[in-house]
Design brief:
This protein has helices spanning about 5-15, 30-40, 155-160, 185-209; strands spanning about 45-55, 60-70, 90, 100-105, 125-130, 135, 140-145, 150-155, 170-175. It has about 210 residues and is an alpha+beta fold. Residues about 170-190 have low confidence and may be disordered.
Length: about 210
């Protein structure tokens, strides 16, 4: 069986919460055991998050792993035994027969930000919404494999789709903010998002150079 991001997602849910909505029956107790087994290092102040990502070594990307995000990366010998993150974790509770490798990544202390002021063009991290209901974050810029749509703004269906319908999108500036006349216009908002993507890509190119 090939290790996938789904296996790691179930592992994360087991360690953090002791359950996963897709795991039931005889496998459910194994997820609860994952939480009990790993809660000592997971609940330390230095560990700030878990995610599924390819293991990095010497600048190269390896197999899918459980990435442990920490404030500061420390040598194993300087940690108490209870704070040491295992090099791999059994994937049995996550439906994977084998060990799932871990990868520790230093990310620094977390901080809360609210990017809610009006800005043009729009930038990732700021709040956007649809015309009828809901609002949320413009997450990042992605590259599409389809010709003619190389740069796209990424967000969630409930943020940009009216009533959560991904096929009926009408993006607007967040409903949480006061709008100026015409800001609800579908065309003008899409144009602002396009300008934002172009601005970000130019910045990326500048740093790459």
């Amino acid at each position: 069986m090939r290790l996938s991001h789904r296996h790691v997602a179930k592992l994360i849910s087991g360690i953090a919460f002791g359950h996963h909505p897709d795991v039931s029956g005889s496998s459910a107790p194994r997820l609860r055991q994952l939480k009990r087994t790993h809660e000592r290092w997971w609940e330390t102040k230095n560990v700030v998050g878990l995610c599924a990502a390819r293991k990095q070594s010497g600048g190269a990307f390896g197999p899918v792993s459980l990435q442990v995000l920490v404030r500061k990366k420390r040598a194993s010998g300087k940690l108490a035994p209870s704070e040491r993150i295992p090099k791999q974790i059994s994937g049995g509770g996550a439906g994977y027969d084998g060990g799932i490798p871990t990868d520790v990544l230093q990310v620094g202390p977390g901080r809360l930000e609210s990017l809610a002021s009006a800005t043009r063009p729009e930038h990732p991290g700021y709040n956007i919404g649809n015309e009828e209901d809901g609002s949320g974050t413009l997450c990042c810029v992605v590259r599409s494999r389809q010709p003619g749509h190389s740069r796209l703004g990424l967000s969630c269906c409930h943020v940009i789709g009216r009533y959560g319908d991904a096929l009926d999108c009408w993006v607007s500036w967040s409903r949480l903010h006061t709008r100026t006349p015409g800001e609800e216009s579908e065309g003008s908002t899409v144009e602002r998002l396009r300008q934002s993507v172009e601005t970000i890509m130019k910045e990326l190119e500048r740093y790459r150079d």
